[in-house]
Design a protein that fits this description.
alpha/beta, 5-stranded mixed sheet, 11 strands, 45% helix
């Protein structure tokens, strides 16, 4: 009799746990997702192809923006609940909203490259005595490059010129007007596909790791609206799970991913995109698990310009916990 009672109690416990699992089903919710054209948004290709079908109870709306400014106001107001943005912008938004925007994952590492046309560069130290033309003055590319030149001890031996747009710089490199440039993907692929004399000689993501104790250059990320995430944790976590799968797809099947990326207007040319994907450092890295590296990256930006991260380094609540 006693044995039977134990069996019945165990069965009741199992049924109770099953019921709890069923009650934890994702509740109906509409999720507005923002993303940027370019490498920061490329990791969502598989999700775009599948129409962001995350769960029967999750309705999704997608905003593809050409520039971060198009997403900023919507993230601050909560109109967009999840977005792919530059990591320093995530810190700015966290400070501006007093903690209402959190970082959930790193989705892109550094995708900056030293490109040459008729100039021999074999290692980072060879940049000494050269003029580098680049983009991103007053933004992450400027601070990252200055940091690396500082760490290498050659900042005072390098002259830097800035061009407003990467397409303009790519055109100058292709035309021979610039011998040494720092360009992001996909513009590196654009110029190297046009002329075999134009070479991508240094991956600055690799150089950053060498100079910074292998701490990743966490340039892009996924952010979430804190209130929305607290009220819809299961839905947010489902998005992150599917996003990680999408990143794996993009890196594995570059040809298929490139076609999707072109069809959705994230990048304009599938052939260029296919070549650019392996060099675009598209990743999925949980933010909480990589807090130390993200903090180190933001601290470097803060050192060069506090405003680049919103005037203050974010505290631990910046990190969304799944």
């Amino acid at each position: 009799m006693k044995k039977m009672l134990v069996i019945l109690l165990t069965l009741a416990l199992v049924l109770s746990l099953v019921a709890c699992g069923q009650s934890a089903e994702i509740k109906p919710v509409t999720m507005k997702i923002g993303m940027l054209k370019g490498p920061t948004g490329m990791g969502m290709a598989k999700m775009l192809e599948e129409g962001y079908v995350l769960d029967k109870n999750i309705k999704t709306e997608v905003l593809i923006a050409a520039a971060p400014d198009e997403l900023t106001a919507k993230l601050i107001s909560g109109e967009v609940q999840i977005a792919a943005v530059p990591t320093n912008l995530a810190a700015v938004l966290y400070n501006k909203t007093k903690g209402e925007v959190q970082i959930a994952a790193v989705n892109a590492l550094g995708n900056l490259f030293v490109v040459t046309n008729g100039v021999e560069i074999k290692e980072f130290a060879d940049l000494a005595g050269k003029t580098i033309t680049t983009v991103g003055q007053g933004a992450t590319p400027e601070y990252a490059l200055n940091y690396m030149l500082d760490k290498a001890g050659i900042k005072d031996k390098v002259k830097i010129n800035y061009i407003a747009e990467p397409l303009e710089l790519a055109t100058m490199v292709a035309g021979g007007a610039v011998g040494v440039a720092v360009l992001p993907e996909p513009f590196v692929s654009v110029v190297t596909m046009k002329d075999i004399n134009i070479q991508s000689v240094l991956n600055l993501n690799d150089e950053w790791n060498k100079l910074n104790n292998n701490q990743m250059m966490a340039m892009g990320c996924i952010v979430v609206n804190k209130k929305f995430a607290e009220e819809n944790k299961a839905a947010v976590n489902k998005f992150l799970t599917e996003y990680e799968k999408s990143v794996a797809f993009v890196n594995k099947d570059t040809a298929a991913a490139a076609k999707i990326i072109e069809s959705r207007g994230i990048l304009a040319n599938a052939a260029v995109t296919e070549k650019a994907i392996p060099n675009s450092a598209i990743v999925y890295k949980d933010a909480t698990a990589n807090k130390e590296a993200i903090n180190a990256y933001l601290k470097i930006l803060y050192t060069y310009n506090p405003a680049s991260v919103g005037g203050a380094l974010p505290d631990d609540d910046f990190y969304y916990k799944k």
